[in-house]
Amino acid sequence: MPEDLVRLRDVGPVDPLQQYDGLFSVSPDGRHAAFQLRRGDPATNGYCLAMLVVDLRTKGRAVVVDRGGDFIRLALDFRGKAGFPTGFADPITPRWSPDGKWIIFRRRDKGAVQLWRAETDGSGSKAITESIDDIDDFRISADGRSVVYATRPGLREAIAAIAKEGRSGFRYDDRFSPASSNRPFPPGPIERTAWILDLASTATREATLDEAALLDKTSMQEGNWTEAKSPAGNRAWVQAPSKTFDASRGRLAVSAGERILSCRAPECADASFPYWMGDKVRFLRREGWENSATALYEWKPGSARARRLYVTEDLFLSCVPTEETLTCLREGSLQPRRLERLDPVSGRRDILFDPNPEFANLRRGRVERLRSRNSFGLESFADLVLPVAYEPGTRYPLVVVQYASRGFLRGGTGDEYPIQAFANRGFAVLSIDKPDAVGLRATTDFREADRINLKGFADRRSVLEAVEAPVRIAIERGIADPARIGITGLSDGSSTAGFALLHSKLFSAYAMSSCCWETNLPVRVGPGAARLFYDMGYPKLTDDSETARAFWREIAISPNAAEIRAPILAQASDDEYWSALQTFTALRELGRPIELFVFPNEHHVKWQPAHRLAVYTRSIDWFDYWLNGVKTPGRAEEIARWEALRQELSTTSHARSTNVSRP
């Protein structure tokens, strides 16, 4: 089962937090769709990549129009640093020629990301650019004769300057993030440069401002738009609030001649992706408990009400209106992503392309959604996945996976804890979708929200309550064994697990993909990011006041190391393992059970298939050992170490209790 999950065929990024549009595109005549299909192979530690064109009229007849290339990972501007690497997949959006005979897409082959052109009948593909810099984005001109694309030459120049600086030593300054790299990052953001490629002559020149503006154009055919025009020329759009985190959502409005009509129905206040259907406007919105459902509504301009046509708790991505239907990438808790067509009036669903038809033959644990509201008044939900051979009346070990639970339940945020593989090994699993941040309920200013979140560790307590509530439900219902409960996490999920280690009595074993909050935080994030943390309210490294010590006792592991007994598995990237060393050292000095594994050439989210499989299987075996006493065959060396850790814990705990009992 772990290998089945690693080898799933995917369309677009699959992390729960990467819910992008533009993962497929529909041809101008609405008859075909194009997308990249990707499959990890742990044996070769690589990816098989192909560009497909699917006939939407014949239920998934697919033509491979291009094959090959390298997996393209997303790079970000983060905390003032440009080109910050991640393990996330960079979304690949194919775009159609006006006549639908060819598509253009981005592809990397060892060097810089280039533009490729493929004939949609499968007769051939080839690179059409020779850029020395990665091509980040592009658009095809309306006449199909040219392409405007964007690169960032300044990033290459900044990296070259840093390499030159290294000959005489790097000055340690705001460019550094020691927990991520031993080299400085280029300061960001770095502006992009737009270019025009003439497809007939292959001549390239720098684009004018008007030509570059094409890069900001959205397209309904790519599932990415905020406004639409009717055949009569009327416009429909969403009026986003002036202060918002998502400009694609707001109140629905239309223009009718010289008039502007706003939909006053409550459902129209949080509309997105409006499109015309005759003289009515349809739109999507999230609703229900913690906005866990996706609904499609219809509104006739001038009407006081909007009518709901369809609602589901499945996840929709990149929806494109196709006549009276919607063509979307769709996934459910037990169903990996596939291309479907939905008739919202009748509810009929047609599967257009299923990348993983064999997945239906695998054994899967039944899923039930649990809902809770914490003491902060915030809603959250969790998906309870029962063991495959579940028998009512039997209590099972339970593992918590965090921290988003929308769509297919694969491996949580970062995809490192395989939910159905745990269920196949006899575990119950809780997939947590954490509540909104406490601070964001009070303000739309991110920095102020961070201060509110940190005050009294309000957000950490809010999330821990949202985790503990469904765990208690599973215990009360006789499903979970209260003595055999583990928790996992990456990124914010790791922060929650670490906070639980200090503030919860529910969990007996831990597995983290990044570790841990510690008193050396200002050192490991670097001077630039340290100022951001000070602004939130974190103590400085030199602050030895009782207030600072009390702060760290609430969240840092090393000041509490003597009280910790639970076993901890940390599986970190070589980018970030430095952050785990203070915790690891403190716990090992005291004989506490902790294992640390470091994965090479990885980032905050791991991207290599072999590493994902290793993390998957070790996590399952770790919990099987510490919660069930099972010694998995084929892991003798690690089991021997875990046995030694258990014995050492028993010895140190006995010595401590003996010392405490003395007069």
Notes on the structure:
Strand 16 (227-229) and strand 17 form a beta hairpin. The longest helix has 26 residues, at 636-661. This protein has 13 helices and 35 strands. 22% of the residues lie in helices and 32% in strands. Helix 6 (458-476) crosses helix 7. It has an 8-stranded mixed sheet, with helices on both faces. The chain is of the alpha+beta class and 663 residues long.
The geometry reads as globular
Radius of gyration: 26 Å
Number of E-type strands:
35
Q: Strand order, main sheet: write it out.
A: 28-29-31-30-32-33-34-35
Strand content of the residues, in percent? 25-35%
- Secondary structural class: alpha+beta
Please state the average pLDDT score: 93
Count of individual helical segments = 13
Helix content: 10-25%
Largest sheet: 8 strands, mixed
Please give a quick description of this structure.
The chain is α+β, with helices and mostly antiparallel strands and 663 residues long. The protein has 13 helices and 35 strands.
